[in-house]
Amino acid sequence: MAYLRIFxxxxxxxxxxxxxxxxxVEAPDAPAAMVLxxxxxxxxxxxxxxxxxxxxDVLASHWAPEVFDAGRAKGYRRSGGARARSAGPA
Amino acid sequence: xxxxxxxHPVPAGQVEPWQDIxxxxxxxxxxxxxxxxxxxxxxxxHEFRWVPRAPSLQAxxxxxxxxxxxxxxxxxxxxxCEDLTGKSRAQYLEQILDGPPRxxxxxxxxxxxxxxxxxxxWLIDGAEIERQATLLRSSYGPYARAMRxxxxxxxxxxxxxxxxxxxxxAGGPRQRAAVQRGVDRWWLRTLAxxxxxxxxxxxxxxxMAFGLKLARNEDLRQSWLTKFVPQIRAMGLEIPxxxxxxxxxxxxxxxxxxxxxxFSSLLRGGSPVGADLQRDLRTARRVNDWLLAxx
Lengths: 90, 295
What we know:
The complex is a heterodimer. Chain A is an alpha+beta fold. Chain A has a single domain (5-75), classed as Phenylacetic acid degradation B (Ubiquitin-like (UB roll)). Helix content of chain A is 24%, strand content 24%. Chain A has 3 helices and 3 strands, in the order ββαβαα. Chain A has helices at residues 30-41, 65-69, 82-86, and strands spanning 5-12, 20-27, 49-54. In chain A, strands 2-1-3 form a 3-stranded antiparallel β-sheet, covered by helices on one side. In chain A, β1 and β2 form a beta hairpin. A two-stranded antiparallel ribbon of chain B has the order 1-2. Chain B is globular, with a radius of gyration of 20 Å. The interface between A and B is medium-sized, with 16 and 19 residues.
């Protein structure tokens, strides 16, 4: 069964929603994965579109979670609005 | 005494397969999830057998859908196990078909009459919901996520069971007697399904410490009793336990203990019924081999 590949499955519940990751299936190729994904993830729950993506094609970030925190220290983006005005000239 | 989690702290929050996972966390998660996975794959063999014998078209459709769901749960959990252990699908199939019978106690008993699958859907899927609702917060991310779909579908199974039992109770005296026989047979097995209390549970405390499991067996059993004792009585059925009583102050049920020696012997050594389920799966694998063969 070495011919099986892992496909990540993304489901869009209703038009306008984002495709969300719902799980994986194992299949020999993408069209077969699509059939399995439909049967498995769209049998009961609302669905209007599915994507299957070969896991080998996914590039996952390798950074530690702290790396993403750095981007949040941007206090200067908050102008203060009404508070800044009421404080008067600096 | 230090708990396993103190000895080997796991990463804060949810654990994902690509993180560094301590060996004993991985071993505990593997044991728990493989057990659940094998139960979801072996158990439906009982159900397949009842699809052609269902008493109505409605019941037949319900059981065909229910067994498809259960195998689907097995499939999702197989993926979780493969990522957790690095074993392949082929290795897991071999383990499920030929390996030791590591699955739930309830599948080791025969399902001899129609009331058996209906009672299991009503009471035992109800019991599974109790446990799985807590597992939505399990510390192993892929398992907790798989639980969302599983839990939703178990809700459907429980409702099917309640509907089918309700239909039988609205029937004649022979049907009502059959349902009572079913409750008598499955009562203690259902209580046992939650597993022993913490002090007698070999792996429970470690699983709790790792956050893999969120509620103690006894607490889940108590909460199931609170929901199901009134439900069973409202159906017009008697519960075969004279010592069943609720202490309102303590908020706890007293009940007759299941046979724990039988429970652990089934979980460790299996049974002829369980062996038969695995044999059916091997046959299914053999007759479909031409489709799966590599060439």
